[in-house]
Design a protein that fits this description.
Length: 422
Amino acid sequence: MKIINTCDKIKSVFANGFDIELWRKYAGEISHELPSKCENDAKSYDFNRDVLPVLENALNNEKIDFVSRNFQSVIDTLNENLSKLFDTEPDINIVLYLGLCNGAGWATTLDGKNTVLLGIEKIIELSWGDETNMRALILHEIGHLWHKLNGNLHIPEYTKRRKGIAQLYCEGVAMVCEHILCGDDEFYHQDKDGWLDWCRENEIEIKKEYLRRLDAKESVQDFFGDWCSYNGHSDIGYFLGCRFVNHLMKTHSLKDIANMKYRVLNKKFTEFANTVIESLSLEDYHKCSNIWNMKAQPLTEKWREEIDAGNRLVFIYKIEDEFIGEGALVLDAGDADYTIPDKRVYVSRMIVKKEYRNRGIGSEILEFLIRKAESMGFSEMTIGVDKNNLNALHLYKKYGFTEVLFDGADENGEYLKLMKRI
C-alpha cells in the first residue's frame, strides 16, 4: 500500500492562489492520467461559479495542515483495521491531493493501480478534516475497492432503474465494509442533528419512495451527495443502501453479495422495499392466524386482552401486506425477572410463518424490537427460551441476550430467562 500526501506541495505550488496551468503540472506529477481524469469528471460544472470558490477556500495553510495531520493519524493505524476485511495488505494507493471538486473520496484506477483519491478541497468544504470523519471517508472508499477486488462493483447503468439499483448497492456494500473496518455498525459520519434517528424513524417511507422512483423511472439523485437532499436530509441513500445490504447478509455472505448480478439485486430490493414491520392494531389481530394457529393456542384471548389494555405491544413483519412474522414487547409480565417498570421490558411471541423461516426474518424482527425498546427508554430487555431450542438460543445470544437470570424448569420443560442490557 502506497500513501501519497501532497499537502506540502499544495502549499508551495499555490502559494499565490490557484492557477489551472500550475494545477495541471502538479496533478501530472502525481499521475499523468490525473489531470484529464479530473477535468473530464468536472466538465459539467461551471468552473468559476462551482469549483474556483471551493479551491480558493481550501488554499489556506492552517486548514491544509489540519487535514494533513489527521490524515496521517488515520494512516498510522490503518493496517490494524484492514485485517478485519482483507486477508493480506491490499495493493492500493491512497492519495491526498487538490482536485477540481471531484469528490471528497473517489475510488478509482490510476496508472493501472487501484487508488483512493482524497480531494482536500471537498474535505475542507464539508468540514470532514477531523480524524473521525477522515477515517470514515478513507474506510468507505477502501470498501469500494474491496468490492471491486472481490466482486461486481460496476453494473451497466443504461437505464435509470439500473443506475438507481447500482448506486444503492455499491454504496451499501461500501458502508458495510466501513462498519466492519471501524468496528461500529452504528457509525455514520453524516449523523449530525438527529440524522440517524430520522432515517430509522422514516425507513419505511424512504425505501418505498426509492422503489416508487425506480418504478416511475425517476431520478434518485436526491438520496446521494451532500449537494442534494430528500425531505431536508442529505445522503439518505447511504443509510438505505446499508440497510439493504444488511438485509441481504441475513442469508448471504458479503462476498456472495459482492458478486450479485443486477437481475438478482433488482428482485431482492423490490422484496426489501415491500417489507415493513408495523404496530398491530386490535382490529387486525385476527390476521395473525396467517402466522400461527390462533384457534389451537390457549393464550390467544389473553394476548388479545393484553393488546387491548396496552400492556402487549405487537409488531408485525409484512411482505406486501401479508402477515409473515411477529414479535411483542410486554410492559408488565407479572414476573419481576422479566419486567421492571420503566427499566426492563419483556420480548414475547417471536414467531415467523413456517415457510418463511431461515431467511433472517427473525433477526430483523428482533433488531426492530431492540431499537423500539431503546427508543421507549428501556435499558434492559428479557426473553424466555426453551433450553432445547438451539436455533433460538443462538439468535438471542447473537443479539446480546447473554445474562442468565434463571435456569430451571416448569411444566413445559427446562428453560432460561435471558437478559440484554441496551
